[in-house]
């Protein structure tokens, strides 16, 4: 072993030197050079830092630097996050997105253009005028639809979600507010009154019939029974008084 090489290192180093830091790493750790001023120091890490990607070899695991426009990468040719001012698309960092795609400033990626989508129109509403459905001949009716997919920045904008058109209805007078309810209430009261009257009349009739029946029964109990008159054809025998 070289006199400047030590095997009693710390921080995951297998071998190290006072001047260059880590020279080799313990198993499963990645070796990476860090610049400190004009000097590079070797360090051993469990994972590669931002801007680097890891490669494993039989003798050593190394952290290699990503391309200049990559913030993080999987390999040198496949970026997973771009630096500011670039948009990620298929592992590459681009200043401008290809045709048919748009730049998403939130994710900093090139994404597909999304157009607006709406639901089907609803049925036309009743013909109204100033909020009323009576007392006029010409009014308006409307229909609506909902937005089911909002567009992206370069997508087709959403169309109108409501439509209105003129309409004609059969002219009719508006029923005064509360009048219909009042009439229904009066009819209900009258019906209840008639039913109560009929019920009272039926009760009086039953009471009168019961009273007449009781009166006849009492009369039959108090009057004496009438004797039967003799038959006119029967002859009464003379009484013999002579002795």
From TrEMBL:
Coiled coil: none annotated. One of its GO terms (biological process) is positive regulation of non-canonical Wnt signaling pathway. CDD domains: FU. It is found in: Secreted. Keywords: Disulfide bond, Glycoprotein, Heparin-binding, Repeat, Secreted, Sensory transduction, Signal, Wnt signaling pathway. Pfam families: Furin-like_2, TSP1_spondin. GO terms for molecular function: heparin binding; signaling receptor binding. InterPro entries: Furin_repeat (IPR006212), Growth_fac_rcpt_cys_sf (IPR009030), R-spondin (IPR051514), Rspo_Fu-CRD_dom (IPR043601), TSP1_rpt (IPR000884), TSP1_rpt_sf (IPR036383), TSP1_spondin_dom (IPR044004). Residues 116-171 form the Spondin-like TSP1 domain. Residues 11-110 form the R-spondin Fu-CRD domain. Belongs to the R-spondin family. Activator of the canonical Wnt signaling pathway by acting as a ligand for LGR4-6 receptors, which acts as a key regulator of angiogenesis. Upon binding to LGR4-6 (LGR4, LGR5 or LGR6), LGR4-6 associate with phosphorylated LRP6 and frizzled receptors that are activated by extracellular Wnt receptors, triggering the canonical Wnt signaling pathway to increase expression of target genes. Also regulates the canonical Wnt/beta-catenin-dependent pathway and non-canonical Wnt signaling by acting as an inhibitor of ZNRF3, an important regulator of the Wnt signaling pathway. This is R-spondin-3. It comes from Rhynochetos jubatus (kagu).
């Amino acid at each position: 072993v070289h006199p400047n090489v030590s095997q009693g290192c710390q921080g995951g180093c297998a071998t190290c030197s006072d001047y260059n830091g880590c020279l080799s790493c313990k198993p499963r750790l990645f070796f990476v050079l860090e610049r400190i001023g004009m000097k590079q120091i070797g360090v051993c890490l469990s994972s590669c830092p931002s801007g680097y990607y890891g490669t494993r070899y039989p003798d050593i695991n190394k952290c290699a630097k990503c391309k200049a426009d990559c913030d993080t990468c999987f390999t040198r040719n496949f970026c997973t996050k771009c630096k500011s001012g670039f948009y990620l698309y298929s592992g590459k960092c681009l200043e401008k997105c290809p045709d048919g795609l748009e730049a998403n400033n939130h994710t900093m990626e090139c994404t597909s253009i999304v157009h607006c989508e709406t639901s089907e129109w609803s049925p036309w509403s009743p013909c109204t005028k100033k909020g009323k459905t009576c007392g006029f001949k010409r009014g308006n009716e409307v229909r609506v639809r909902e937005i089911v997919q909002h567009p992206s920045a370069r997508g087709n904008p959403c169309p109108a979600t409501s439509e209105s058109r003129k309409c004609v209805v059969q002219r009719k007078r508006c029923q005064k507010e509360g009048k219909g309810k009042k009439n229904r209430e009066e009819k209900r009261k009258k019906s209840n009154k008639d039913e109560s009257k009929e019920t009272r009349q039926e009760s009086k009739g039953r009471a009168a019939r019961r009273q007449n029946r009781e009166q006849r029964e009492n009369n039959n109990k108090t009057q004496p029974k009438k004797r039967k008159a003799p038959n006119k054809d029967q002859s009464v025998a003379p009484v013999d008084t002579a002795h």
